[in-house]
# Entry
Amino acid sequence: MSGALALAGCSSSEETKSEDTSTTAVSATKVDEIANTVPEEIKSSGKLVVGVNIPYAPNEFKDPEGKIVGFDVDLMNAIAATLGLTPDYREADFAKIIPAIQGGTFNVGMSSFTDTKEREKSVDFVTYFSAGTLWAQPAGGEVDPNDACGKKVAVQATTYQETDELPAKSTACTDAGKPAIEIISFDSQDAATNAVVLGQADAMSADSPVTLYAIKQSNGKLEQAGEVFDAAPYGWPVAKGSPLATSLQKALEHLIETGDYKTIASNWGVEQGMIDKPVINGAIS
# Structure
């Protein structure tokens, strides 16, 4: 990936974060009643194979020692513990995670997936968080997310922002006789963020916790453009019809009841997106 700035910025806080959340991440213990609902082939393996795309801080990224950390990671560690399983994180391109779940390579995806009706045609989702979209721009910029016609906007490839949000806004521009939005896609969120820092893009669009974290790590080089909009659920994708969805749902309900869910979210500063009740296939669009 390009640009050391975002990477260096992340590193300064990752050590603290991994220390802050190490106790929380292992505090959950097996609940037999919930663990018994896990599909037999997964239960007998003792592992929960999790497909993940790195980096997407603060949800999933690597600390200076190369360990995968983040809000999603701490939560999935607690989920796996509740199910009596050991998480086995396997890195993959974001676009390849759902096909790998369909093919049986991964049991579940954990990569800040927005649960959409289109994606629900391929896999089932268990909701665990609510995130909106938020734009960032260089400090002192004047980008309006509602009128970005002719602007260059950076995104991570295959995210909701690339596939849905920006194409719709660009079409609205051209329908009104204005220039299209130039959508610049990158394989990683770090690269998209750095494109704005380096002046290669006028703004970036990403999920709200990701944008807020990027701004925080930019040492004043980035600032928010507009407010959070289009809140939608994050979900863990699993194979269509898999009983694992119910197992994950029950495990999260348990962590919400014990307070572990709130503790993990608070450790990463994302408590604004907490949900009260996880559902299977909770897409709103």
The CA atoms of residues 34 and 83 lie 6 Å apart. The first strand starts at residue 47 and ends at 52.
